Amino acid sequence: MKKWMACTAWLWMVGPWVAQPPVGASEPKPLELILEDQFERKASLADLRGHVVILVFGDRRGTEVCRKLGEQLHVCWHPTAKAQPPAKAQAAPVVPLEGLKPGQVAPNVVVVPVACCGKVPAALRGTISRQIAKGSPDVVVWLDYNDTMKNLFGLASGETNVVVIDAQGVARWKFNGTIDQANMDKLVETVQALRREAVK
Questions:
Q1: 153: part of which helix (H) or strand (E)?
Q2: pLDDT grade, residue 26 (50/70/90)?
Q3: DSSP notation for 44-89
Q4: Which of 180, 146, 147, 174 is nearest to 162 (CA)?
Q5: Which pLDDT score, from 0 to 100, does residue 3 have?
Q6: For 180, phi and psi rounded to 5 degrees?
Q7: Are 73 and 66 in contact (CB under 8 A)?
Q8: Do the domain assignments include residue 5?
Q9: Is residue 125 situated within a structural domain?
Q10: Average model confidence (pLDDT) for the chain?
Q11: pTM for the full predicted model
Q12: In this structure, what CATH number is given to the domain that contains residue 64?
């Protein structure tokens, strides 16, 4: 838990470091990611343009660790969400950015949980969606039935997997496995730098 105690402090201490585009990409393109949520609605990354997005994804074995990480990351950028019921926590305001010009709005940080269900027969998807909707009626969960996340970013089974997407929809940082303090610091640095980049 100690690594989370320093989270808010990091939000104010991060310097001018900026996350770099993917290696070898001369002109990074927005990620085209379209899944569905537990209510069988279309879930598109394009709908979240303008926000910095953190995709927290994992397989069934990693459900609990991914849930905990997702909640902790949401609270990191939305401190008033702590100890609130899910519906109220989702409405909590984002931590502001220092040095904004008049009229500039600090980009939100949207944490999106993605359940990597594997290649499930279409006939079973409705059952899985209803089970997840029952367990998470207030927090939207994206469902991956085609190994899309695994193919794009890799997947550590039973662990947390994280991808940070900038406000233009470009993937800028990823991590597969248990996040230690060094990588948590890197994640926070990356998100804060991308928030600043979005308002330049």
A1: helix 148-153
A2: low
A3: EGGGGTTSEEEEEEE-GGGHHHHHHHHHHHHHHH-GGGTTS-HHHH
A4: 174
A5: 45
A6: -90, 180
A7: no
A8: no
A9: yes
A10: 89
A11: 0.88
A12: 3.40.30.10
